[in-house]
Amino acid sequence: MQRLPLIIAYFLVLGSVCHCLQLQAIALPQAGASANSKAASTPKSMTQEDSQQLFEQGEKALRAGNLALAERSFRAVLAINPQVAGVYANLGVIYMRRKQWPHALEMLQKAEKLAPQVPGIRLNIGLVYYRQNEFRSAIAPFESVVRDAPDSVQARYLLGLCYFFTDQYKNAATTLEPLWPQESNQLNYLYVLGIAANKSQNPQLEERALGKLVGIGQNSAEFHLLMGKAHLNREEYDDAIAELELAAKVNPKLAFVHFNLGIAYMKKQDFDRAKTEFLKDIAIEPDVSFDYDQLGMIAYQQQHDEEAEKNLKKALQLDPHLVSSQFQLARVYQREGKHALALAEIDSAAKADPENASVHYVRGQVLKSLGRTQEAQTEMAAFTRISSSALAKRRNELDPNSVPGPTPNPEISTEPQ
């Protein structure tokens, strides 16, 4: 138990989470119209039997991963009868797999309206929000699923995570603790439960979770990853690198080990080694926005603006709401004298994170360059106000050139494999 104090310190810093559950969307087979739906007119050239066949064809294609055929089949069903809840639910699944979140949400909400009694539809609505890191919006759908299907492990776990990510630690602990029989052999479950218990002043549950974490972690790659992040959050960068290298030695394909090594090397101002590590992580997890975000930051520091722009745009393509990439891209455009483009990016960052001192500082600089002096002064006043607050001190944002936000944790936003 010698490592217990270090783990507790890590918990208090609030690290990252990646759950082992398969977060797969649940397709809702429903060939006929919902019992609550209104009768729909059927074209003479098509029959209900045709609709059934098309629906089954769409389901088969969806199971086989042929999303284009599945979409065409389900759209053809809607042409016959636009009141089939299962069609909208399955279209929602298709768009989820394509990460077309607005379309997915639109289809799933139509399905929910036609079949409000089906928990699987609401689970998928919650998943759409969850996979976009919109944890507050995901809470209500997950709550409704847990209420109607209290034995749903996936819904309960995701609800607990959403409470956790929104600092509702008592709710997180209460929601997650009943999953102990199923999940207590999972390091990440124990990690989240331990933090939630600590934050909600439940020492018995905290000790239970931490003790089990240490007991089952041993020398696994995942445990070394957690320990490395603990050192990283304590700014013990050499120790962090040592632990993360051990994790990589045990399992060189473990996601996010190389990402966190990259963060550690960046903290040591070793940008070339950091870049190497982020590229290794991309080889394992090619769609993690934070890798490209960090590569963009390195390129900016090295004054390689074209490379920085390319990586930051890739990060925003994967996550349009990533404030650090919006902020960094604004700085790239600012340095290039593209002030209108810089303003567009920094405006997006300001909208997403209005209490960020660094964002106000850069926005003030850009507005000044555009000749909008009064607005620039307002931004600088906001920078001064926020930078002197306790929140800014906690977030280490007193440096106006710093990138907003804490150390990124891609395990939170990336869908587990």
Task: Summarize it.
This protein has 417 residues and is an all-alpha fold. 70% of the residues lie in helices and 0% in strands.
Jot down its keywords.
Serine Threonine Protein Phosphatase 5, Tetratricopeptide repeat, globular, single chain, mainly alpha, disordered N terminus, 417 residues, 0% strand
User: CATH H level of the domain at 20-132: which superfamily?
Assistant: Tetratricopeptide repeat domain
Looking at the overall shape, the CATH architecture of the domain at 20-132 is Alpha Horseshoe
CATH class of the domain at 20-132: Mainly Alpha
Helix/sheet category: mainly alpha
Q: How do the helices and strands follow one another from N- to C-terminus?
A: HHHHHHHHHHHHHHHHHHHHHHHH
Per CATH, what is the topology of the domain at 20-132? Answer: Serine Threonine Protein Phosphatase 5, Tetratricopeptide repeat
- Average pLDDT confidence is 84
Shape: globular
Q: Give the biggest sheet.
A: none
- Percent helix: 55-70%
> Tally the helices: what do you get?
24
Low-confidence stretches: 1-44, 394-406, 412-417
Description:
The protein is mostly helical and 417 residues long. Among the domains are: 20-132, Serine Threonine Protein Phosphatase 5, Tetratricopeptide repeat; 323-417, Tetratricopeptide repeat domain (Serine Threonine Protein Phosphatase 5, Tetratricopeptide repeat), CATH 1.25.40.10. Helices cover 70% and strands 0% of the residues. The protein contains 24 helices and no strands. It has helices spanning 4-13, 48-64, 67-80, 85-97, 101-114, 119-130, 135-148, 153-165, 169-176, 180-183, 187-199, 203-217, 221-233, 237-250, 257-267, 271-284, 289-301, 305-318, 323-335, 339-352, 357-369, 373-387, 390-394, 410-413. The radius of gyration is 24 Å and the shape is globular. The model is unreliable at 1-44, 394-406 and 412-417 (pLDDT under 50).
